Amino acid sequence: MIKIGEMKIMPISLSKGQKVDLTKTNPGLTKVHIGLGWDINKYDGGSAFDLDAAAFLLNSNGKVKDQGDFIFYGNLSHVSGAVVHAGDNLTGVGDGDDEQIIIDLSKVPADVQKIDFTVTIYQAEERRQNFGQVSNAYIRVMDGLSKELIRYDLGEDFSIETALIVGELYRNGSEWKFSAIGSGFQGGLEALCANYGIDVA
């Protein structure tokens, strides 16, 4: 919470399915930091838990143009410079964001209509892990100065899923809006990539 004189600015807290104006209510906003975080429940499977955040730059059909539009630990920045992944966190230990993705809205290519933010569990099948073992997952949208503008706490709605679409930035005319999605997938990263038009084979 930030105090400006006597005025207090609170981030907008969203529920699943809610949408909110981003640039309209924050004129001049171009640099956006997307923070994703989670906690691991007590888990005795013997394997480390590695969650990975990613961004998919999508056209009007909800698909990527090519694999370069998939930003993740193996491809940390988009050729346009519009989307940069701050790096892989292998454990999720500690407070605050576990991974961050930085967006420059002024550089997003004109054919990109939306940017989806996802979280997957690395080697979920081999390690017998799923989002039922994860708690306190959230996504937050901050301005370039790290002031929190929007927050969406996912809750504990997931059990067997191994991939999540957490939230989405999308164009609305000349403005950008944010949508809280919270949709789960089985099949991990492979299923998620197929959904967006990427063949991971």
- Tell me the span between the first and last alpha carbons: 46 Å
Q: What is the helix tally?
A: 2
What is the overall shape? globular
Which runs of at least 5 residues are low in confidence (pLDDT < 50)?
Answer: 1-7
What is the radius of gyration?
A: 16 Å
Fill in the keyword field for this structure.
6% helix, six-stranded mixed beta sheet, 201 residues, mainly beta
Describe the structure.
Helix content is 6%, strand content 43%. The protein is mainly beta. Strand 11 (134-143) and strand 12 (148-153) form a beta hairpin. The longest helix is centred in the C-terminal third of the chain and has 8 residues, at 188-195.
How would you summarize this macromolecular structure in one to three sentences?
The chain is mainly beta and 201 residues long.
Topology:
Blueprint: E1 2-4, E2 7-9, E3 12-14, E4 19-21, E5 31-40, E6 51-58, E7 70-71, E8 83-85, E9 99-104, E10 114-121, H1 124-127, E11 134-143, E12 148-153, E13 163-172, E14 175-185, H2 188-195
Parallel strand pairs: 3-12
Antiparallel strand pairs: 1-2, 4-14, 5-9, 5-11, 6-7, 6-10, 8-9, 10-13, 11-12, 13-14
